[in-house]
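Hey, I was hoping to borrow your eyes for a little while. For a while now I've been wondering how a particular protein folds. The fold is given in discrete form, as structure tokens running alongside the sequence. Could you read through the record and tell me how the tokens relate to the sequence? Take your time with it, there's no hurry, and the full record follows here:
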Amino acid sequence: MPIKKRQKLVASILMIVLLVVFAVLIVQMARIQILDHDWYQKKATLQHLTKVNVPARRGPILDRNGIKLADSLRCSSVVADPQLVEDKVVVAQQLSEILNLEKSEILKLLNKDKRFVWIKRKIAGVEEVNINRLNIKGIYTDNEYKRLYPNNELASHILGITDIDGNGLEGVEYKFDRFLEGTDGHFVCERDGQRRHINNINNREVAPQHGNGVVLTIDSVIQKAVEDAIDEAYYKWKAKSVVAIVMAIKTGEILAMANRPTFNPNLFQEYPKPSRKNRAITDSYEPGSIIKPIIVGALFEKNLASPDEEIFCHNGAYRIGSRTLHDAHGMDNLSVADIVAKSSNIGMAKLGERLGNEGLYNCLANVGFGTKLNIGLPGEASGMLRPVSLWTDYSLPSITMGHEFSVTPLQFITAFSTIANGGKLIRPFIVSAIITNDLKQVKRRVEYPTVVKDVMTAQVARKMLNPILVRVVEGGTGKKARIEEYRVAGKTGTAQKLDENGYSHTKFISSFVAYAPADNPKVCVLVMVDEPVKDEQNEGVLYGGTVAAPVVKDIIKKTLDHQKTVQFNSFHKTVSLLKRGYE
């Protein structure tokens, strides 16, 4: 083929190819500009617009007087867009020096194939200043809220904890999480190539709905007095644990609830998990002799005994089958009142025989043992009360001494308070209201008192309270709980603990429970000391009257003194204060 002809053919082919290419480009441009215009427009918009989350503030937790026990404060967190970070090694070194993190860990985060990674959550103010001062491309800070417990350990077992994202994990934080958490908001804004915010887009903002507040029944002053008192006992007696509860008798409000060991919810990761247990509701104990007034009350109710009736107590040793019961001090004849006051095991065993197995079981079940109280805190145990069919020939005398069944401290103080309540079993509670975050509007409140049932007549209750329980303190095993200004009524308990060889002779639960003032009971206080240790400094026997009674005395005095010197808020008074924005 001649050269000119070949050149002409090549030129024609190139022309056709170019025309085809241009035709394809025109079609593609038409598709982009016309058919897929909206899709590409949206994609372009998304490249320079961003939806920014506005976190909701978690609601506060307050005591009965509006004092904040848990709150949320605004803070910042360091985040990164790894694709925008240029020299990752240098940036990792800079961040590690400011944030006190390992350089290798930061570098690992910066090498991720993501557009968003957390570097460090909820940083200190000085860290935020130093980070912003560097102005590193791809590194910026986001606003968050940090949970703060301003009183550190105070009421920590009641309050509980939250995780890094503000979700409740324990205590009130967990149980009332749906009320406290709130709902995040957002806004849309433009951003530059370094993902920095430029302008907000109007009409595209949703405000956050901040979480509600939770009002507790506890009083911070009383709570502090209780924690100081059990702190001293915990270390003095080298105890395994100590539990204390203060309850308002006529309403069922929990005024204080504390445990040792304890923890600081601001730094909960630094404490062993067992220190976070709220033993007042999660752990069950054999109560020991503090059960005796409840059983004697059932005897009075059935007219099976009277306070002045005398019972022969066998001078301290009483044989039942192959087993011999002992009293700490040998006594012959004791009145029923003195059996309680001097805590005679033999006298109680003989009285328990009058009730029989069924009657004794009904006595304990009637005051709520073996069932949860549903106080409004997670992890509540029901205790253990076996059916009569599982009892042995020795169960009845054992149970009259407070063995072979178990109760939580909360169950016991609730049951014991029936005596001071004129025989009425009142349901305890610890959360009194749900309010708006600004503390100005009550959204839900608890009505009180809730009477579960009548467990004894008012006449029997008065008979138990005075003189029997007063006699325990004024001349019996609870003498170390006597207070000059207030007449106290109570009962001691010293329960042997079970070990691999049966009931131990060295490990005890030493307890004391009391009301005051005896003539017009306002508060009931229970203290249980688990495994106190006797040494040169801790002289005497590890009885409840020796170990726990002085602690209860201290708590009662400080509680009643506090209620005299300040206007102690009733539940409805507290709500009215909160409605006016009282803090």
